[in-house]
Specification:
The complex is a heterodimer of chains A (610) and B (172). Chain A is α+β, with helices and mostly antiparallel strands. Chain A has ten helices and 18 strands. In chain A, strands 1-2-3-4-7-8-9-10-11-14-15-17-18 form a 13-stranded mixed beta sheet. The longest helix of chain A has 80 residues. Chain B is built from nine helices and no strands. Chain B is elongated. The chains are: A alpha+beta (610), B mainly alpha (172). Chains A and B meet through helix 1 and strand 6 of A and helix 3, helix 4, helix 5 and helix 6 of B.
Chain lengths: 610, 172
Amino acid sequence: MAVQVFRWKAIGPLLLFLLLLAILLWLFAEPVAKDTSEEVGTELLGTQVDIGKLDIIAKEASVDLSALQIADPFDLNRNLVEASEISLKLNPLALAEKKFVVENFRLSGMRFGTDRKTPAKPVKGDGFAPQALRAVRQWSQQFDVPLLKLTPIDTLKQLVLNPTQLTTIRTAQAVAARADSARGALERSFQQVNIKGTVDSARGMVTRLRALDPKKLGLDGTRQAIEDARATLKQLESAKQRLNALEQQVKGGVGSLTSGLGTLDEARRKDYAFARSLLQLPTFSAPEIGQAFFGKVSIDRFQQALYYTELARHYMPPGLLPKEDPGPERLRASGKTLRFPKERDWPKFLMQAGQLDLAIGGDSPLRGAYEAVVQGLTSDPSLYGQPTVIHTRRTAEGSAIAGIDVDAVIDHVRPDRVRDSAAARLRGVKLPSFTVPGLPFRLNPGTGGANLNFALKGDQIFGRWSIGSNQAGWALDSAGRKLNSLETLVWRVLSGMKELSVDARVSGTVRSPKLAVSSNLDRAIAQRLEAVIGEEVAKAEKMVRAKVDGLVAAKVEPVRRQVAQVRSQAEQRLGLEEKGLDDVEKQLQAEIKRLTAGLAPGIKLPKLGI
Amino acid sequence: MFALLKLIQSIIKTLHSDGTPGQVAAGMALGAALGLTPLMNVHNLVVFSLIVLLNVSFGGGMLGWALFVPLGFILDPLFHAIGLQLLEAPGLRSLWTGWYNTPLLPYTNFNNTVVLGSVVGWLVLAVPIFFAARWGVARYRATIGARVQQSKFYKAITASKVYNFYRLFRPE
């Protein structure tokens, strides 16, 4: 009896099962999509994302979201952004390839910086966004923002310094070790190039040629002798090249040692600052006062800009090579999911053009209606071929706000030219108040203007944050404590100042950024402090310098001499080797000339161009 | 405990079903896909449909699923490694790029390392599973099968209502 391959009677139950599956999918698609969107959004942005409702309109290939809330990762009690309605029109062809191409989107009822009813949960785990958040927090901690010390100095304290705490001594020891190792390396290099051996062999050749008489040698013998001399000349030329290479190496090594000496000066400046900090001397350096007053608040702004730039760089990588993402969360291992972008095809995610209607309501001075345009926001910028452009303009009139402009360009099209920049200009906005770190003063800048410019080109960071106001107000926050004489002096300066102008800049590389802050306050405070405590501080600083110099001089001077010795010995030896080569080369040339003259007397031969 | 009882029930029923050892083994080889690979994927819908539509032992399929689930979890790191090797192989990049940009194919999640690695693993193991299961079922029936069929335990299991539903998919 033949065995049937198909079980026809099972078709009915199977279709029923598939129908049931389809019904379940239809029933639960929206809640599942909502939960997944919240999870993915939270994971991607590193902050809690809540969606009130999600409607899938299959016929139109569109999705409507309502009551979207994105918490501020830097302040969990606030929402970064809130939107009451969002409508996304998806491209159905791209959707068939599991790609999300938003042909058009509209947002309405958008609000920024609103208070949350319940604080957002901090995002933990090893996702990229939480890691980036931790990294930028760590980044912001590397800035050495000094606290303004306003301790009165009645008498000069005794300063006790431990030499092991001084950077200069450690640096000097390192430079000395490098000088020793450079000396050894140079010696080995001289031996390797073996100039002496070549010169000795060439001298032997000269001696041999001098003993030859072209008339006795005959034509063939003389020609052979000339060939031998030319071969030796070639060896000399090769030795010269080796010597030139060695000279470059010497220059590099000596240059590195010289720059090491430069770090000694820098280390000594650090030691002065360290020793000064032990005395807790009040500063009247305007840049230090500026950093003490506005350093922290400026870094907060730059840290936020850097965080979002890092996210953009991670989620919008340039190039067309396969890209790895973590796989989906499930009971089984997630693995990795690879993307295989292809030229002239859809990216995994693309927001072609979006228009936003922003409405900021309530009592905020930012209230009004705004328009914004987002173009080319994509996961594969190289496929899209154009930078992402975000452009926001305020269109409402009759409000106290003079204007808000935000422009951002994310250019990740080419791997060798990754550039991100953003500029925000706000006029007539209520600036947030803040406490001056370490001091009992609170600044309420009032209504004014604020600018933030931020750019990251490769590893180079450029940031500028400035605020200006003519309604600045100051409050004492001393919690009943009586101000000391210096604090009273500074308070007198501050409380009379209504004008505020702060300019903070960050520059350098992401790994090694530099912060510079200046304001009209620090200049005024510095002048007053200098007038009152300048003489006393100058005395203390002189003592600090003398103490540091006394400890480090004995260690630094021998190192300077050692470096100079390495340099002069290397240069001297190079000179001698060069001279030896030149001398023997001249002698050889002369012998060749003599031999060729004997070969054909009376005929002037062209000069040998070796 | 309940899951364990269901597993025993499934094993007993399958081993005494009317299907030939080959039909039971084919069901188990197909069912192994459900256990070895992450369940919620399109290929498993196809495999499940095949178990239902083809004249193989449905119980064998369910048994294969149940038996290979723990193995799937254990082998996940290996599947990930296999999948990663395949997806990163320069010679296969054009194939994956083509599939990735073809409508519907990306919904199979072939570009996930664990999915691809486990499907490949299952394809490799399917034939050995089939032959091993066929030999095992035949040996069981030839040795202790008849005695078990006379036991009260077996009768209690086959009398359940679930068994009646199961009979719908009994091999012919």
